[in-house]
């Protein structure tokens, strides 16, 4: 019969091993049942806005929301390198930039002037044109198939030779119906790009979300944590607007040693970098071309592209903070994408301030039928004079969604 000391050591060892496994299961939603539509304002209308597979959302000071989508919903199952889908490279072709009017809940597609290429969209960012207050630059990740793979259709090619992921830069006059292509940015360090944070008209931070692009090690990387797989990185890239492709591009590592660097966004006084499958948001600041970590916030789900919400009517209850969209059951995402099933989304708000603590609350979740997946969300304050409680409009979309969804939420 084992001694009490042996039993105690065994229990302690199991606890040390099982706690990380349990935490990963929680983050991936293994114990979470898909929930029919929930938004914390109670029963209410959902507004549906045109735009399929819109990975990212960005609110401009004009009030417009900019996003990058696919022209045909469902193509992610055939071609989307971030989910290791390489079956049909011709499905990469019809990406689009859209502008959403949050007052009318409508969207319009921008004509891409001077751009004639495959466009498989992912993360984007917008930044003011320093020469015109009426214009912006739009930076967009493009997971185009490589020329080699298009010509050979050789499924045995390694993933790095199937996809030719790069960054596209466009110029847009706010209110117009077109975006003019400025240049394509390629560099050997841009390998698995996911999201962007523009630092100038043709310069940006870009996250490489994985080290392994497919295979068993890719699966290990997905389910591991920073302690076991700190293999991804974030780059700072500077490019010359007068050149294209690999020409006139300089890239350096801005941040290394993280797991699944994914979404990246601004906050007052700094930025946020997200470990998506780890469910951790890192608050950081920029020093030159480097990113330095300050603190972190852990979530009970995967997260994706962060946005900062500024509460325009704070009163004595300022709810400004980080909006995080993710997957309620990430454990089934590959099955859901390939099976055409709804991908249950989830959205959180972490209110607070760096160094003073964060209060995280659930804003929205669904069983995947009203909204399939969520990878970005933004909040727009509602004037309390028009309602009897503190509320905001939540706009949320996902890499596998049929549309963008808007609904009122309580703050």
From TrEMBL:
Keywords: Signal
Residues spanning the signal sequence: 1-23
PANTHER family the record matches: PARAOXONASE, PARAOXONASE-RELATED
Stated name of the protein: Serum paraoxonase/arylesterase
Native source species: Cutaneotrichosporon oleaginosum
Lineage of origin: Eukaryota, Fungi, Dikarya, Basidiomycota, Agaricomycotina
